[in-house]
Specification:
about 90 residues, mainly alpha, 4 helices, flat
Length: about 90
């Protein structure tokens, strides 16, 4: 629940900033709510006896390299095709 609400609040904050501007209180409030909810998620998962997302997975260098390498490879494929993710659909 924290993950869904936190990511939703972050997206809402960014989207509302595009529509209302950063001066409107809606945008910073959405971003702040998203950050608070995601921090609550991390705290909850760290204390849970059987976490859904074990935080020890993020300590593994092999997994970090694999995730970063996958993102890099995907970006290079888009550059090689002279395209963007939005164009390819």
């Amino acid at each position: 629940m924290y993950a869904t609400l936190g990511m939703g609040a972050l997206v809402f904050g960014i989207v509302s900033a595009a529509g209302y501007g950063w001066a409107a209180p809606v945008a910073p409030a959405g971003l702040a709510a998203g950050v608070v909810l995601l921090v609550a998620l991390i705290v909850h998962e760290a204390r849970a006896a059987q976490p859904i997302m074990p935080l020890r997975l993020f300590r593994s260098r092999e997994r970090a390299r694999a995730g970063g390498g996958g993102a890099y490879a995907t970006r290079m494929l888009y550059i090689g095709a002279a395209s963007t993710p939005c164009r390819t659909g």
